[in-house]
């Protein structure tokens, strides 16, 4: 049985736990912290935690925060090793692993092989999910309105400024749209979620969207929120707002999301099946030769969700502490082997077995200490 968001009924208790965590993150954002956890990390508010014995320290993308949080709880119960993951944004995660202040970094914006090689890093995918548009409009429930790439680009360009604009009305016949002003919300920090969203706008509406595709862009309009929690908090607080977050943030905080028109011209709702459809044809074998660099926005397929992306782990090739790097890889191996159900319960697509096997074969042997691989299956 599923609830109105499409989640399995059996995930309600899990959802409640993560709602509390997400609410805490929202409170931090409202107070100006914006981090998905209690530390602002590389954003400058609070230093990242020390690398304590028995604790793996990671930092970066907010996109997978709900999943990594639950995996961390389960792994601590199973292996007695804690995970301290600081959701400070993909840019912060990249900076932290480059500075070797964490055991691993996380980014939804994959680094190209040249950048990985230049910075002595190895990269591999950990999960796949969808970015959704959340709105705060009176009477609008999840899936209550539909948008397409060109209309979204015009909204984020500042060209469409009210909700009853003709372009939005044309996509929503029979829906009573208010004349409320649109409050555009985007990420203020260096964000992999922004990278996925702006790559989508570039791929699907490149003739309209001219601000580029990156972790940070020169937004033509709107207000910034720090982290996915900051975007969600701003949208919740201001009527007429629209913002983009990972699907789990929308469902856990009971926020209204929009349907989208995909590359095949079909109106689709976000769901595990829609994310999976978009990810099916990702060229992982080819990507493995390029540092696992993969982009899957605007994917073909009648059921594909158009803003789908992977979240990646970054580790140093030459480990400064072999034991800590080995402990991190043991956690990721556990997550690949035991975390698939948790991922699907939270509406993430688990990394398929053949892909995780490819990661263990191609990526993990590159993590070494004194010339010797730290990982031995």
Would you summarize the structure shown here?
Helix content is 37%, strand content 18%.
> Residue ranges: pLDDT <50 for 5 or more in a row?
1-46
Q: What's the structural domain tally?
A: 2
Q: Kindly state the number of beta strands.
A: 15
Helical region count? 14
| Named CATH topology of the largest domain | D-Maltodextrin-Binding Protein, domain 2
State the share of residues found in helices, binned by percent.
25-40%
Distance between the ends? 38 Å
H/E series: HEHEHEHEEHHEHEHEHEEEHHEHHEHEE
Shape: elongated
Q: Based on helices, strands and strand pairing, what is the structural class?
A: alpha/beta
**Can you tell me the CATH superfamily of the largest domain?**
Periplasmic binding protein-like II
- In what range is the share of β-strand residues? 15-25%
Could you report the average pLDDT, rounded to the nearest whole number? 88
Largest sheet, strands/sense/barrel: 10 strands, mixed
The first-level CATH class name of the largest domain: Alpha Beta
Return Rg in Å. Answer: 20 Å
In the CATH hierarchy, what is the architecture of the largest domain at level 2?
3-Layer(aba) Sandwich
């Amino acid at each position: 049985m599923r609830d109105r968001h499409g989640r399995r009924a059996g995930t309600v208790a899990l959802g409640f736990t993560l709602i509390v965590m997400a609410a805490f993150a929202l409170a931090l954002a409202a107070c100006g912290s914006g981090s998905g956890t209690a530390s602002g990390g590389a954003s400058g508010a609070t230093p990242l935690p020390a690398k304590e014995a028995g604790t793996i320290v990671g930092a970066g993308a907010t996109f997978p925060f709900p999943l990594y949080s639950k995996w961390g709880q389960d792994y601590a119960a199973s292996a007695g090793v804690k995970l301290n993951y600081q959701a400070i944004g993909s840019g912060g995660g990249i900076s932290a692993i480059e500075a070797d202040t964490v055991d691993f970094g996380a980014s939804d914006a994959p680094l190209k092989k040249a950048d990985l090689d230049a910075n002595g890093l190895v990269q591999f995918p950990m999960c796949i999910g969808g970015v959704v548009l959340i709105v705060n409009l009176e009477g609008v429930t999840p899936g209550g309105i539909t948008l397409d790439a060109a209309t979204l680009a015009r909204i984020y360009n500042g060209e469409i400024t009210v909700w009853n604009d003709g372009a939005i009305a044309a996509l929503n016949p029979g829906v009573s749209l208010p004349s409320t002003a649109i409050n555009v919300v985007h990420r203020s920090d260096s964000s992999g979620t922004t990278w996925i969203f702006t790559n989508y706008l570039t791929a699907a509406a490149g003739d309209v969207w001219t601000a580029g595709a990156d972790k940070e862009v020169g937004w033509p309009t709107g207000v910034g929120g720090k982290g996915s929690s900051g975007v969600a908090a701003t949208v919740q607080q201001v009527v007429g707002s629209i913002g983009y977050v990972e699907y789990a943030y929308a469902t856990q905080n009971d926020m209204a999301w929009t349907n989208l028109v995909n590359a095949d011209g079909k109106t689709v709702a976000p769901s595990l099946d829609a994310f999976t459809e978009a990810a099916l044809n990702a060229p992982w074998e080819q990507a493995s030769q390029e540092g696992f660099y993969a982009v899957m926005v605007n994917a073909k397929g009648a059921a594909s969700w158009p803003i789908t992306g992977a979240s990646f782990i970054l580790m140093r090739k030459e480990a400064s502490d072999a034991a800590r790097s080995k402990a991190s890889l043991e956690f990721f191996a556990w997550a690949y082997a035991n975390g698939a159900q948790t991922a699907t319960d939270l509406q993430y697509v688990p990394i398929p077995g053949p892909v995780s096997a490819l990661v263990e074969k191609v990526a993990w042997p590159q993590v070494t200490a004194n010339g010797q691989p730290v990982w031995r299956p």
